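Input:
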Amino acid sequence: MLSYAAEVGKDEGFNPPDAGDFNLPPFIEGNEFATKPILLVFLSVILISIFFILASRKAALVPSKLQFAGESVYSFVRNDLGREVIGHEFMRFVPYLFTLFTFILVNNLFGIIPLIQFPTMSRISFPYVLAAFTFFIFHYVGIRKQGFLKYMKEIMFLPGIPKPAYILITPLELATYFLVRPMTLSLRLFANMFAGHLLLLVFILGGEHLLQGVIGLKLISPFAFAIGIALTFFEFMVQCLQAYIFTLLTALYIAGALADEH
Amino acid sequence: MRSIELAAAEELNPLIPHTAEIIVGFIAFSLLYMVLRRAVVPRFEKAFAERTDAIQGGMERAEKAQIEAEAALKQYKAQLQDARGEAASIREEARVQGAAIIEEMRVKAQEEATRIAASAQAAIESERQAALTSLRNEVGTLATQLASKIVGEALDDQVRQSRIVDRFLEDLEKSK
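Output:
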C-alpha cells in the first residue's frame, strides 16, 4: 500500500499533515467501499447495536451495570434532548435523536480510540447524510403539522414586522431554513473533527519526526507528544460536545417546526 | 498519471463528498436507526414504564396501608371510648341500683319494724283487754261474793250483778 506522500511525490523531510491525510486509499485496489472510514461506520453500527441490545435485553426493574450505562445514555437523549426541547410530542422523535447521538458520538470517539484513531465524521459525506436526514425530517414534520402553505408562510413572513422589511427578512429566513441550517449542521461537525484530527496529527507526527532529528530536536520531541496527549483529552471533550450539539440542534429544529408560532 | 492527479486534486478538497461514503452513510445510519427503534427503544421504554409503575404502585400501596392503619386506629379509639362510656354508665347504674337497694332495704326494715311494733302493740292491747276483762270478771265475782257475803243476799241475777259492778267501777274511776 503506497502512502499518499509517495503517490504525489512530496519532498523528503517533514511533510506537515494536510487534507490529503484524510484520504485513505481503499485497501482493496479499485473498490471504493473498502476504505477505513466506511469500515469504521459499519463497525460503529455493529458496536452500538450490540451494546444497546445487550443493555436493554433484560430491561429489568433494577438495572444491571450494563443496563444502567445504556439507560443513562438513552434517558439523557430522551429526557434532556427530546422531552425538554420538543415537548409533549417528543416520543416520536426519540428513536431518531437517540440514533443520531450514539452514531455521531461513537464515530467521533473513533478519533481517539487507540488503533482506530480516525474520526469518521471528518469525512464530509457522513455529516452531509446526517444533516440531510435532519433537514428532511424537520421540514416534513412542519409540513405535516401545519400544511405546506401555512408552513412556508410562517417561515417567510415573520409576524410583527413592518411590511417593507420583508424584502430583507424573507430571503434571509428562506436561506436560514433551506441552506444555512443543513450546511452549518454538517460543516460544524465535519470541521471540528477534521481540525481536531489534523491538530493531533501535527503534534504526534511532528513529535515522531523530531525524534529522528539531531539531539537538540530529540529533546523537544517529548513536549510535542505531551501536547498531543493533552489535545487528545481536549478532543474527547469536543467529540462528545459535537455529538450533543448536532442532536440538540436537530431537536430544536423539530421543535420549531412543531410550534404553531415562531 | 493524469487521472491520478485529477483524483488527487479532487481529494484535496475535503468538502466534496464521495458517492460510496454517501451510500454507506445512508445505509448504515438507517440500519442503526431500525435496530435501535425496533430492539432497544421499546425495551428501555418498557423498563421505564415498569419502574414508574412499581414506584407509583408502591406509593399507592403505602398510602392505602396508612389509610387502613388510620381507620383501624380510629376504630380502636372509638371502641375504647365506647367501652369507657359503657363502664361509666355501668358504674353509674350500679351506684343507682345500690342506692335503690339500700333505700328499699331501709324501707322494708322500717316497715318490718313498724309491723313488729304494731303487732306487739296489738298483742299488748289484746293482752291488756283480756287481762282487763278477766280482772273485771274476777273483781266482779269477788266483789259480788264479798257484797253478797256482806249483804247476805245472793245477787245471782247476772244483769243486775253486772250493772252493780259497772256502777261500782264508775264510782271507782270518779273517785280517782
